[in-house]
Specification:
2 domains; mitochondrion inner membrane; lipoprotein; MIC19/MIC25
């Protein structure tokens, strides 16, 4: 149906073109139509229309191809960007895992060192306690031996009160030492008496 409309449109167009070329008289119209000429013109118009449609179809195909290429290109660009982003994210994740593993190793190492130092400290404290115990025992033993060997003597100063009085007198009468002679005589008698008693 559509093709028939196109063909009839072409025929009308051809007839119009031909009418322009024909001489028109006053009251009548003389039309000389050559059948071969008309067929040839129709065939040319059909060929032109077909060529125009083919050209438009080709343009649409080219435009479609261009759109498809552009879509593919943008998809590839987007895909590359997504892949780059994924790679960067994966690299960051792996880096974070490496750092976490290193931190865990450091933590284990620190705990190991801490346990080692605590163990060493406990040993040193134990040795120190043993050394202190042995030293204290040896000191006590030596002190007991010395006490057993050597008898202690308790000594009290002889005539201490007179001694203090004489010293006080000499301080008060530094220029008059003879004034303290009575105290000195008493002190000598006290000392002699103590010698006789012991």
């Amino acid at each position: 149906m559509q093709r028939w409309l196109i063909v009839s449109g072409i025929i009308v167009s051809v007839i119009r073109n031909m009418l322009c070329c024909v001489n028109i008289s006053f009251n009548f119209l003389l039309i000389v139509v050559n059948d071969e000429e008309l067929k040839k013109r129709i065939a040319e118009e059909l060929a032109l229309e077909r060529a125009r449609r083919d050209s438009e179809a080709q343009k649409r195909r080219l435009f479609g191809k261009l759109l498809e290429r552009e879509r593919i290109s943008s998809n590839e660009h987007l895909t590359r960007a997504i892949l780059r982003e994924r790679a960067a994210t994966e690299e960051e994740r792996q880096k974070a895992q490496r750092f976490a593993k290193q931190l865990e190793e450091k933590d284990r190492e620190l705990k190991k060192h801490d346990a080692y130092y605590k163990e060493q400290l406990a040993r040193l404290e134990e040795r120190s306690a043993q050394f202190y115990k042995v030293t204290t025992e040896q000191y006590q033993k030596a002190a007991d031996e010395v006490s057993a060997r050597f008898k202690r003597y308790e000594s009290h100063p002889i005539c201490a009160d007179l001694q203090d009085k004489i010293l006080q007198c000499y301080r008060q009468h530094a220029q008059e030492t003879l004034s303290c002679s009575a105290l000195a005589s008493q002190y000598l008698r006290c000392v002699n008496h103590a010698k006789q008693v012991s």
